[in-house]
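Hey L., structure's done. Input below.
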Amino acid sequence: MAAPSYASGISAVPLLGETIGQNFDKAVQRYPGRDALVDCASGRRWTYTEMAAAVDACGHGLLAAGVTKGDRVGIWSPNCAEWVFCQYATAKLGAILVNINPAYRTHELGFVLKQAGISVLVAASSFKTSDYAAMIDEVRGDCPDLRRVYLIGSSEWDELMHAGAGSGPMPVAALSADDPINIQYTSGTTGFPKGATLSHHNILNNGFMVGELVNYSEVDRVCIPVPFYHCFGMVMGNLACTSHGACMVIPAPAFDPVATLEAVAEEDCTSLYGVPTMFIAELGVPDFASYDLSSLRTGIMAGSPCPVEVMKRVISDMGMAEVAICYGMTETSPVSTQTRDDDDLERRVSSVGTVHPHLEVKVVDPATGLTVPRGESGEFCTRGYSVMLGYWGEPEKTAEVIDQARWMHTGDLATMDDEGYLNIVGRIKDLVIRGGENVYPREVEEFLYTHPDIVDAQVIGVPDEKYGEELMAWVKLRDGAAELTIDGLREFCSGKLSHFKVPCYLKLVSEFPMTVTGKIRKVEMREVSVGELGLQGGAAEVRNA
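Output:
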């Protein structure tokens, strides 16, 4: 009889029982003169001692503005040093930092300000086409809890930092590691987003353990082009760095492939983060070969399924021999599984690794909740220190995803092999059922990546009168590639994929609809496809979309 799809993360490295502020202060004491933070866009840099002074100035300024333990402080800005100062200052105060997606507009901004009860907002004044100051003015009258707004770079922000400068270290607040310290809004596909509420213990330990598994130390310099408002940036990036005395390198306010490559080369970065689309963009820079990336040894690819072919190029062309795959979600701080540096190439390109230290994982039948045998697919669940406290102000929504035994039900479909390695085969909601056959889009996407002219592919299900659903592939071709037709795609798949896995429709695109964190919005893809194909619950003729 096959073993159950369950594993627990045994580790000789204990969890940290301290707050983020206490952990940061230890790093300052151990590595005072080492680089802590580099903001490439502004040309500014800080040692750990200098960063501590900036964090304490920010904290004293917020304290003088009336911010106390439990208050919600919003941060709405692209990546910059001030974002980092706010992250650590609020942690020392015991205030709850509320991350606000830089892509939000007034409707979403107003919802988050009210739902979280934000009393103080730190924001950029503008970035690219976003006039943050104007949007704040538009919604402020409907947000009774909002009493102060500080625009980064404004005289008010300068006054806040000046008011706290020279005040010395922040006083040690009476904080517990289990106190809520961060609210991150998940990007819901329907309705309003939910605020995942995370504690010091949640995110400090997750960042620390991520860093442990990629062997961070004070000599590492981590290039972080992923957004701070998301766990990938502020936890796997910032907290992984400061818990090991490493240096955080901000290549640009928002992702820019050229700026990222320049930052790695100029700052001798040893690690680079990104979602697959970011690595694809970096590898596609015309003069990619001219950048000296020889300092790289590791990094993390996460955020969405990682294509095998892209992973292979990251290792071979970028020199990231120890690159890790991480899997998780905001509600779990975020990482639940990770590949290790001694995993062979096959493991690191075909799985999301094994269970993280001090966590439990299992794969269950979505219908019965029973753990499935190894090798069978089911819903991925995780339990342990990383599971969020709950959705802010929404106990009923919390109960929908965290069961009575504190297992977090992720909504992702996974398999676990005999050695405990997990593979994410899709989302429960993304599963395509064609004529009674279950088709996991991830499997088809991985195959399409082997086509010499395809650089990115996303597969969705669209309505079909005969089969219930049919497969549609959205494909991005390499520059200079010949036009690809649906007949050509079918010929490529013939004899290699089961007939029911071969796409029925094809759409050639230059980009995909996605969130600011680089996750593909398949809901939007389906809506667009149904409209373009004229599918109203029935099938249209096969054609190139």
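The CA atoms of residues 29 and 116 lie 35 Å apart. Residues 48-64 form the longest helix (17 residues).

-- N.
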